Amino acid sequence: MQKIKSLMTRQGIKSPQENVHDLRPIENFRIPSKEELRELREQPTDPQAQQEIINSIEEVYFSNDSLDIVKYELEKLPPVLSLQELEEYRDKLKQQQAAVSKKVADLILEKQPAYVKELERVTSLQTGLQLAAVICTNGRRHLNIAKEGFTQASLGLLANQRKRQLLVGLLKSLRTIKTLQRTDVRLSEMLEEEDYPGAIQLCLECQKAASTFKHYSCISELNSKLQDTLEQIEEQLDVALSKICKNFDISHYTKVQQAYRLLGKTQTAMDQLHMHFTQAIHNTVFQVVLGYVELCAGNTDTKFQKLQYKDLCTHITCDSYIPCLADLCKALWEVMLSYYRTMEWHEKYDRDEEKTASSVSDGSNVMGTEETNFDRSYVKKKLEHGLSRIWQDVQLKVKTYLLGTDMSNFKYDDFIFVLDIISRLMQVGEEFCGSKSEVLQESIRKQSVNYFKNYHRTRLEELRMFLENDTWELCPVKSSFSIVQLHEFKFMEQSRSPSVSPSKQPASEISRTVTLFEQYCNGGNPFEIQANNKDDETEDVLASNGYESDEQEKSAYQEYDSDSDVPEELKRDYVDEQTGDAPVKSVSRETLRSRKRSDYSLNKGNAPILTNTTLNVIRLVGKYMQMMNILKPISFDVIHFMSQLFDYYLYAVYTFFGRNDTFESTGLGLSSSRLRTTLNRIQESLIDLEVSTDTASTLTSAEERKEKVPSPHLSHLVVLTSGNTLYGLAERVVATESLVFLAEQFEFLQPHLDAVMPAAKKPFLQQFYSQTVSTASELRKPIYWIVAAKAIDYEQMLLLMANVKWDVKEIMSQHNIYVDALLKEFEQFNRRLNEVSKRVRIPLPVSNILWEHCIRLANRTIVEGYANVKKCSNEGRALMQLDFQQFLMKLEKLTDIRPIPDKEFVETYIKAYYLTENDMERWIKEHREYSTKQLTNLVNVCLGSHINKKARQKLLAAIDDVDRPKR
Amino acid sequence: FQFVYSHVGPSYFHSDFLFKFLVIGNAGTGKSCLLHQFIEKKFKDDSNHTIGVEFGSKIINVGGKYVKLQIWDTAGQERFRSVTRSYYRGAAGALLVYDITSRETYNALTNWLTDARMLASQNIVIILCGNKKDLDADREVTFLEASRFAQENELMFLETSALTGENVEEAFVQCARKILNKIESGELDPERMGSGIQYGDAALRQLRSPRRAQAQSTQECGC
Predict the structure, then answer these.
(1) Which regions form coiled coils (chain B) (predicted)?
(2) Which of A370, A910, B103, B199 has the fewest CB atoms within 10 Å, i.e. the most exposed one?
């Protein structure tokens, strides 16, 4: 009520809603009845009066307390009730009520439109609320449905699943990245295992994988790391490739090649490989040589390491030269074998590739195959080209080594061993790339010539020593002796063509078809084998070093001492000839035949005549021939040197036994012009004449003198002045016949020598044979002539003849004593000859020459004696004939030689006496063999018998005429 | 050890002296083997009888002097006697070889000795070598009697083995040393003809190029 009161007081209500709110607790507010309302209207409507009435309303009525108004009013009633008062009072209350009601009604009326208006808003609000309630209800219903369909858990699951999926993907990536980062370890492991293709494959895959993760920032680092690794792999691969050069391994190489193919660098690999091979050759040779040099130097001085290879080679000592060379070749062989096997691998690979290419030839790979084809042909070309380059490298390295040392003082067998190694190396070269190894040949030629020159010089010196020590005693050998029995000529027995390269590699010759590369492909080393054989070979060569060691030789010399052996020996030879069974060694046939007929070949069989020195020369010839076989390129030099051996021997024999200035000057033409030319040639080219005169004066250069030998001196033990020994006839025979024997041996060897002689130089050989070898037997003439000239005292005979009277008037029946004296001389000569022949077999040609010379000289002395006659009669001329007949008769009993030489010379001269003037003139013109003195004497002697003075003048003029063109 | 150059000519290595040596004795006593062992340091087990005379040379160092030995290895067989005898002349030293397993070869020593003293130079230095020392089990000649023989005949004496090389070098070196001593004491005159001794080319060479000579001598002992 309080509120109502305040509302009434304030006379204006601001908000109906407030009112509504306020009204709510008095919902049951009693709306005034009509009666009341009428009552109210009946009351004065003075607002003032009304307000006074309202104000007169007790305060309590406006109290909000729920006091009982009735009770309140009752209590207030005065204790004595008065109806009037009550009435009055009631009216007052009634008035108050009416005023209030009126006031309320006024207020209500006043507020009615607002109320209506407000009510409408409330209604519309209510409608809105009702709608919202419907929506809410619907929403709730839907929610309930949803609550039934999807639970919250399953939604959470889905969300989680999705999250998980994302995370798993991330984890995978992270793991991959982690793996990628760890690949490094695996890669280095693989590299250690030398699994290069695997490593590269892996690396490439990694790179590819990494590129898919490039949105991770850590990947870029990984990428660069992988790139580094790849480069590192390539480097390692290169190292691996370089290993191929020294020791080719198929699986290793296959891996490396695969790796390079993966990298797409097949061609680069090839280029690298060739560079590595070149490098390997250089390093190998350097290391080998350095090793030996340091080993020999014995200290750990490092100065050698800084040397150039070429200079290093000059530090090799003589005794390490051969092992070092062998090792050098072995090492180079390894390199070349590796190259060879590399090629082999590529060939095989190519074949396999082609096979697979042809079997899977679909169009899709055309591009790829084309590229590989290109690669393959590139590789093939490169490899083929590389062959000769590598061989050239090898040759140059070996050449440097070869020429680094002066080998001229090597032992013979050592040198041969070197040659053998090189010839084997050349064989390798031939097989390797079909090379003729010009570089090696040239350097070996250089060394050979140098070596051989030195060797030869020593041999010549030695030969001189032999010659000067030789007392020209017969060296007793069997009659069946032949030089092919000598160890040095063993190589000829082994029916090997002389043009085939030397001994020592029979194995490789038999298996010619198997190349060294095939033979040693799977291990071993051709130079190793040789080193193993070295001992045997050295033995061989050493054995030939002047000591025979041959079964063959044994049979040639041994058993000789037992005397029972000799007749058997003789018989056998004889039988051989009877049956016409030509002895195999036809060299001695001539001497063999002569033995049968010779008077002077008695007890010594028909053994060839040779000396210790001859044997030495023959052995040398054998060695030189072996040299020649090995040293094809210098065969000419060797033959040239060999000819010097013969030259020197011939020259020695001539100076020892044949040179005789007094006889030579008689112009008897004892030595043919050919022989003289030969001797002069030898003297000029080979003999160092200055040594004998004065050592200080060196007119000719030292170089030239090096090539020459001093003239030899005859041993002091040889006496050539005693008549008893026929002026050293035995020694002369041994010397001269040994020379002839030597010449025969050279003849025998001619075809062999000819075969190895280069075509351009063949004329030299022919000239040597035609001008030197064939003159050997011509030496007999001057040498034996000296004996013949001294053996018979021709001067004594001339004196005896001078005492004879030739102008006798009757025919004499008794010959003159000078004939007996001469015959006595001949008998003595014959006796001495027999004496000598007991020591030395005198071959028939020799005894014939001796006899011939003696008889010729005797006959010429006789003619000379007849030409000394001052006066002669016809009877005296007959006496001459008688004397000569007597001489011939007796002489023919002493010697087998027929016809008696110069018999005609004497007889014609004697008989010319009887010729008439004209005949004599013709005769003089026809017989130039007589000297002017002899012819003049003939004419003079005839004067007075059948030639007059005029005729004599004419004839003397004719002699002069004849004489003139003669000069 | 010594550096061996058997094939080297006289003009290559300088030497102070050149001695002519002989190896004599019966056939089969191992003369050639001794020489081969001396020069090549190897035993030659397949050797045959020598024909005539063989030759070998080697430079040895005796008391600081280089001596070139020019050794003539003679055939022991009787039939070659006439050939071999001619090589005796002018020998300065000789190895007289017998076989300790063969009394026959020992018994022949007197003849060989007579020949050597007669044909070679008067002052020839001879060393007696009892070869095949390695075959001691088959010995027929005792060391004692041989050394007595050597003493009586003023010979040096060694027992040698060409097989093992024992005393081989020594035999040559001792002989050469004795000759050198004789030269130094004036007992032997190298200038005399037929002494079997010549001055080597060392002096001349050293005058020309002393450095080279030195280098060579070092090479000789170094290797």
Answers:
(1) none
(2) A370
